[in-house]
Design a protein that fits this description.
13 helices; about 325 residues; 2 domains; 2 strands; Cytochrome Bc1 Complex, Chain D, domain 2; mainly alpha; two-stranded antiparallel ribbon
Length: about 325
């Protein structure tokens, strides 16, 4: 039997790895990479702030209320519930893999996670606080004062520090190791025949024109209703609210399809309750294609392979309020 040298074996292994990597890059979807350049101290602080309802007027709503990390980073209702049970105007997009988006919110009004993090705190329909009042709460809690100083090296807490910390935590909320990623990286038995057939349909039908890259979406704005008009259950007009251009009316950020089996209901108005319904609607309205029942089922089977490892961490223990901490006013008193 022919024996290979150690150098030859290593070279062969490198060639195999390179070939696998090349195969993955040939696909319109790429595997999720782990987060890089993370400030761990800032992450731990941001985690506390993400779960702390005292940043809301009611003392009841936190970031996790609408972007629940045990529910795919969303709340699984058509539109979120805000202060005093106000109905939100739009479906809460998942926070998972949100660091991969070209911008934040459906209309892209926030350029990055930091800009997004401050919005809900001061939104009267969401957490209904002000940045000044939120800072007052944090400054009244000695444990927070110490931690902010340790992380940022400053004597005084400001809103930039708050939003930076939340954003740094959110950067860690990626979901690698989906079965589809395993397939991309060379594990050819990671997908069933129906799942592979669904992916083939997904590509050949044109879905990948918008749903591509690491996040399988999130990297462009597109009009909802290209072939047929979409009758929305929400008054949201999309990108035009930001740009002021009529041409951008009903243009929304393409949502990520990562973990999509967990992030129902679908679309900006939460009108589609199931993946089957969503695939049917998108086929007709965006592609001019009516999928058969079998085709739809295969595409749905493929979409479920995009569920990755969910964020796993110890829940933060929030520092207790003090006698000087402003008390919440959940009933407006």
């Amino acid at each position: 039997m022919l024996k290979m040298s150690r150098a030859t074996l290593m070279a062969a292994a490198l060639i195999a790895v390179s070939a696998t990597a090349q195969a993955a890059t040939d696909e319109p979807i790429q595997p999720i990479k782990p987060p890089a350049n993370i400030n761990l101290g800032m992450v731990e602080l941001g985690k506390k702030l993400y779960f702390d309802p005292r940043l809301s007027k009611s003392g009841f709503i936190s970031c996790n209320s609408c972007h629940n990390l045990s529910m795919g980073g969303t709340d699984n209702i058509p539109t979120s519930i805000g202060d005093k049970w106000q109905q939100g105007p739009i479906n809460a997009p998942t926070v998972l893999n949100s660091s991969l988006n070209l911008a934040q919110f459906w209309d892209g009004r926030a350029a990055d996670l930091k800009a997004q993090a401050g919005g809900p705190i001061a939104n009267p329909g969401e957490m209904a606080f002000t940045h000044t009042l939120a800072l007052g709460v944090l400054e009244s809690i000695p444990a927070y004062v110490r931690e902010f100083k340790q992380v940022f090296g400053k004597e005084k807490i400001d809103i930039d520090q708050v939003t930076l910390a939340i954003a740094e935590f959110e950067k860690t909320l990626v979901t690698p190791n989906a079965r589809f990623d395993q397939w991309l990286l060379g594990k050819k038995d990671a997908l069933s025949a129906d799942e592979l057939a669904g992916y083939k349909l997904f590509k050949e039908s044109g879905c990948v024109a918008c749903h591509n890259g690491e996040a399988v979406g999130g990297n462009s704005f597109q009009k909802m209703g290209l072939v047929e008009p979409y009758k929305a259950k929400s008054a949201a007009e999309g990108r035009s609210a930001v740009t002021g251009k009529d041409a951008d009316r009903f243009n929304f950020k393409v949502p990520t399809l990562r973990n999509v089996e967990m992030t129902y209901p679908y679309f900006h108005d939460g009108a589609a309750n199931t993946l089957t319904e969503a695939v049917d609607t998108m086929g007709r309205l965006q592609l001019g294609k009516k999928f058969t029942k079998d085709e739809n089922a295969k595409i749905v089977a493929f979409l479920k392979t995009l569920t990755g490892d969910q964020p796993s961490f110890t829940l933060p223990i929030l520092p207790p309020s003090t006698d000087s901490t402003p008390r919440p006013t959940p009933f407006g008193k």
